[in-house]
Amino acid sequence: MARVVVDVMPKQEILDPQGQAVANALPRLGFQGVSEVRQGKRFELEVGDDVDDATLDKIAETFLANTVIEDWSVRRIES
């Protein structure tokens, strides 16, 4: 078994209202120096050793991310 992490983020040109809300709240809470926040999603999958990178890419692209507005990346985590 292997652990795989898929990170999904809004594309840079897409407005991110959740990220903006966090960025706007930080100074009010006393945290300075953060100029931008982008909020995304993280998926952790336990997969069999026979699941190849092409299959993982297909899962991310067709099921986990909306590729019109989101970018994604897949990485295996060493156990």
UniProtKB/TrEMBL annotation:
Gene3D superfamilies: Phosphoribosylformylglycinamidine synthase subunit PurS
Metabolic or biological pathway, per its Swiss-Prot or TrEMBL entry: Purine metabolism; IMP biosynthesis via de novo pathway; 5-amino-1-(5-phospho-D-ribosyl)imidazole from N(2)-formyl-N(1)-(5-phospho-D-ribosyl)glycinamide: step 1/2
Cellular location(s): Cytoplasm
Catalytic activity: N(2)-formyl-N(1)-(5-phospho-beta-D-ribosyl)glycinamide + L-glutamine + ATP + H2O = 2-formamido-N(1)-(5-O-phospho-beta-D-ribosyl)acetamidine + L-glutamate + ADP + phosphate + H(+)
Its EC number(s): 6.3.5.3
Main localisation: cytoplasm
Alphabetic keyword roster: ATP-binding, Cytoplasm, Ligase, Nucleotide-binding, Purine biosynthesis
InterPro entries: PurS, PurS-like_sf
Top-rank lineage group of the source organism: Bacteria
An example molecular function term from Gene Ontology annotations: phosphoribosylformylglycinamidine synthase activity
GO cellular component: cytoplasm
GO annotation, biological process: 'de novo' IMP biosynthetic process
Family: Belongs to the PurS family.
Quaternary structure, from the entry: Part of the FGAM synthase complex composed of 1 PurL, 1 PurQ and 2 PurS subunits.
Function according to Swiss-Prot or TrEMBL: Part of the phosphoribosylformylglycinamidine synthase complex involved in the purines biosynthetic pathway. Catalyzes the ATP-dependent conversion of formylglycinamide ribonucleotide (FGAR) and glutamine to yield formylglycinamidine ribonucleotide (FGAM) and glutamate. The FGAM synthase complex is composed of three subunits. PurQ produces an ammonia molecule by converting glutamine to glutamate. PurL transfers the ammonia molecule to FGAR to form FGAM in an ATP-dependent manner.
Name of the protein described by the UniProt record: Phosphoribosylformylglycinamidine synthase subunit PurS
